[in-house]
Amino acid sequence: MSETSTASAPPRQDLTNRAPAAARSAAAINLEGLHKRFGPDSVALDGVDLTIHEGEFFTLLGPSGCGKTTLLRILAGLESPDAGRLTLGGRDITQVPAHRRSVNTVFQSYALFPHLSVRDNLAFGLRMQGVSKAERDARVADIARFIQLGGLIERRVDQLSGGQRQRIALARALVCEPNVLLLDEPLSALDAGLRGQLQVELKRVQARLGMTFLFVTHDQQEAMVMSDRIAVLNGGSIQQVGSPKDIYERPANAFVARFMGHDNLFPILDRDGVRLNTALGALTVEASEAELSETSGEGSLLLIRPETIDLLPPDQAGTNCLPARVTDCLYRGSQAEYRLDVGDAELQAMVNNRGWQLPSVGDRVCVSVAAEDLVTLAGEAGT
Amino acid sequence: MSGARVAQAPGGRRALGETGHLLLTVAPGALWLLIFLVLPGIYLMSVAFMTNGPYGQPQMPLTLDAFERLAGYGILGWSPANLYTLLRSLTQTLVATLLVVAISYPLAYHISTAKARWRPVMLLALVVPSWTNQVIRTFGWMNLLAPGTPLAGLAESLSLIPPNMGLYPSNIAVTLGLVYNFLPFMVLPLYAAFEKLDISQVEAAQDLYASPLRTFWHAVFPQTLPGLLAGVVLVAIPAFGMYVVSELLGGGKHMLLGNLVARQFAGGANWPLGAAGAILMLLATFAGLYVMRRMGRRLGGGNEVVI
């Protein structure tokens, strides 16, 4: 189904003419039961199963120490797992050393060779693979044009800026045309403006090449902007795998919800069918009985995303309409952020500024939220 | 070398105040170099071209006698003794430097990868012996290598030396003394080079299809090259002029160029010959430095390797 090169014998293709991944069915990477410890008390990976599809921009997201970098290093062959199996394009590579794996890495520190020119840095991987000088020169020239850094090719690495180094590091890995490109927080050393620009650029490069990218970051915004799919990791195990929309709007548990920046989490006190009792008051959710019985037990939580809340005049009535009082209002121009006293709890709301009269501090309002926007989360085990 | 820069410095006449200020700051150093390097150097060179007087004192007229003697032409015809001494000096320097490199490279790597709290201890252990006078340390080796000592016994039982000969005095003892004396001068610059090396570059090389051996050769070695060359200069130049070690551990039979020169100024009583020998050493050193610089530039991939 897939038109991109298969792992067995990848034919040399013009980088810029590579077909985009038409079908995302073939598994580029398959991980089964990966375990890794760095000593008796330090579990880096605790049984990770994961499938990454061909041509996908896949992100490993999590706080520092969650095991995401360890996972990346295991894929690169720089670390070996204590247990588990690792296949690349269907081939078991668990025991294959780093220099025989068709994966390349963009390192967090870039790891460019200071004793070599930009050209020799770019040609390094091809040279080690025994590619002829003529082809090496052609491919290096291609990639330099592709990332628009042709003018820097004779420079020394220490004459480059951070952003330029980042691009050279990317090009050095891309020019080898790996089956999978691994990126270890490649943008974290850059300032915010450049970072945003390179996020867009990186995403475009990936889309044009149709190459499988495995990206590691601790920044949920970055992950959402760039990824086709995200795996959220914590404590060495995967919490949730899904599209950015899934992860943000339907977090699988309280950890994912908090990590994605959600603060409006309220313990579910008791339940009567689809009516949940919380400190805010009674709210109706839209979910199947099976789903609810799984996520409304001891310690389970109700998530209300601030941007799904509407503030209505106080005399409104209806489902999920709760009386509230404005305690704080932060005007942010396009939006206004509210803090409200609802029942016995404090609720945050984000209201779009559409030129209407916005409520001010002290006003009585009615908080309204659609039943389908409410998410119930199972209890916080292990967080 | 800094002497040349000092001499050029007051060239510009545009800003007198600035030039005057510059002169003032470089004057003490320049004066020092003038008195202790330039003037004695000129004196030494002129002595080499003088005639040897009856009591070994240099005198007029100017001749090339000393250089002819150095090349081996004496009253009794040509003798290869001085040539052998020169060759012995060169081989001893080469062998000792190679051995020092062979020991220092893994040692420096080992120290640089040791736990942070052990590194200063290891470096200190390396450097502390050189706080003792070189002569005393060399006498120490005499005691270790003399006939009847465990080391000599071991060499005997391995049939490396004839019985009851001891390891000293011998060429091997001289080499050993040189290696021992100059080891820290190689380990320290190499350690600095290894410490600067970013481990992620080693990983990057592996990631870019370099086998462990090629990772070393293409990613690690070039980055330690400046340290290695600095170490070679620090070891080879003093080793080439070595006097104490060869005098004591060579037992007077395994002379180096340094001993030849020293003898002319002392017992041999031939200052012009000694001066000629010193000039030969100087020229050989410059030639060596030049070769190193060329090599450094080639191996360093066009980048300047500062020595």
From TrEMBL, chain A:
Functional note: Part of the ABC transporter complex PotABCD involved in spermidine/putrescine import. Responsible for energy coupling to the transport system.
Protein name in UniProt: Spermidine/putrescine import ATP-binding protein PotA
Reactions catalysed: ATP + H2O + polyamine-[polyamine-binding protein]Side 1 = ADP + phosphate + polyamineSide 2 + [polyamine-binding protein]Side 1
Location of the region described as Disordered in the Swiss-Prot/TrEMBL record: 1-21
Gene: potA
EC number(s) reported in the record: 7.6.2.11
Tagged with keyword Cell cycle: no
Subunit relationships: The complex is composed of two ATP-binding proteins (PotA), two transmembrane proteins (PotB and PotC) and a solute-binding protein (PotD).
Family: Belongs to the ABC transporter superfamily. Spermidine/putrescine importer (TC 3.A.1.11.1) family.
A Pfam family this chain is assigned to: ABC_tran
Enzyme class: translocase
GO terms for MF: ABC-type polyamine transporter activity; ATP binding; ATP hydrolysis activity
SUPFAM superfamilies: MOP-like, P-loop containing nucleoside triphosphate hydrolases
Keywords linked to the UniProt accession: ATP-binding, Cell membrane, Membrane, Nucleotide-binding, Translocase, Transport
Domain ABC transporter intervals: 29-260
Taxonomic lineage from the root: Bacteria, Pseudomonadati, Pseudomonadota, Gammaproteobacteria, Oceanospirillales
Automatic annotation (TrEMBL), chain B:
Cellular compartment(s): Cell membrane
Record's keyword terms, sorted: Cell membrane, Membrane, Transmembrane, Transmembrane helix, Transport
One GO process term, biological-process aspect: transmembrane transport
Protein name: Spermidine/putrescine transport system permease protein
Gene3D superfamilies: MetI-like (1.10.3720.10)
Pfam families in the cross-refs: BPD_transp_1
Membrane disposition: Multi-pass membrane protein
ABC transmembrane type-1 domain residues: 86-292
GO cellular component, one term: plasma membrane
Membership in a protein family: Belongs to the binding-protein-dependent transport system permease family. CysTW subfamily.
Residue ranges of the TM segments: 21-45, 90-109, 172-194, 228-249, 269-291
